[in-house]
Amino acid sequence: MDPLIELRTLIGRYCDGEGICPTVVPRLSLIRASQPTEPRATVYEPALCIVAQGRKRAMLGATIFDYDPAKYLVVSVDLPIVGQVVEASEAEPFLCFRLELDVPALAALLLEMPRDAGSGDSAGLAVNAITPDLLDPVIRLMRLLERPADIPILAPLAEREILYRLLLCEQGALLRQIALADSRLSQINRAIGWIKRNYAAPFRIETVAREANMSPSSLHHHFKAVTAMSPLQYQKQVRLQEARRLILAERADAATAGFAVGYESPSQFSREYRRLFGAPPVRDAARLRMSSELAFSVA
Fold first, then answer.
1. Chain-centre distance of CA 220, in angstroms?
2. 239-296: which CATH number, 1.20.1640.10, 1.10.10.60, 1.10.3720.10, 2.30.30.140?
3. With contact defined as beta carbons under 8 Å apart, do 160 and 109 qualify?
4. The pLDDT of residue 182
């Protein structure tokens, strides 16, 4: 069977509902959408995404990344992204394989490979052409869903080969940067982690720079190269994403959610929320509860 057809068949078999379907394989989830979605602001975590059918778009700043059965997406750091399923139907739904990147496994694998961290900065998101060498272990990992007893032994082997193939690809240097503790990307990742842990409090750029072991000017330059935004813009995105979660999942009112994530002015919170999500908090929450779009908040 053609590998993409087999991947499509397996995803359809184990993800028969709409949205994100967790699996018994660690770090592996499947995604299904039976219709295109509106552009949605969300946070992509480090992962490999392979589309078996349909097409999706990810927008990082002003840059657009389209991925489909010919191209896969790799995300190296937590990034606020605008995502959109742009090709899907009831007859041919969007089907996607998503594997969270295991950073310790990447680091261990690098110890057995020639060290080549690459140079320069690149965005924390990339799209590459799919190859048979990458699809092969992906299919073997998916087949394990049919034989759960084999997962503890064979899933780590297939995942290791997937990571190895990614390290050999065009964007392999980007993935090497994730695992190297002394790399620029790892420093930016530490800054991102600090902001995510402390998003509700005001911060000075010097504080985040110390966390990343960088000068403030260097942090600002490299942070923007990787995330397409400044640290303060990143904090704003994280705040608004968390506020949206509070409103939707915990039924918090807009004022409570705004204060919880660090806003002192309800009007400023509502204004910035509308700018990011396209509607004020109450209307946005009502719209999402009336639709199935919420299921597609992850790549």
1. 22
2. 1.10.10.60
3. yes
4. 64
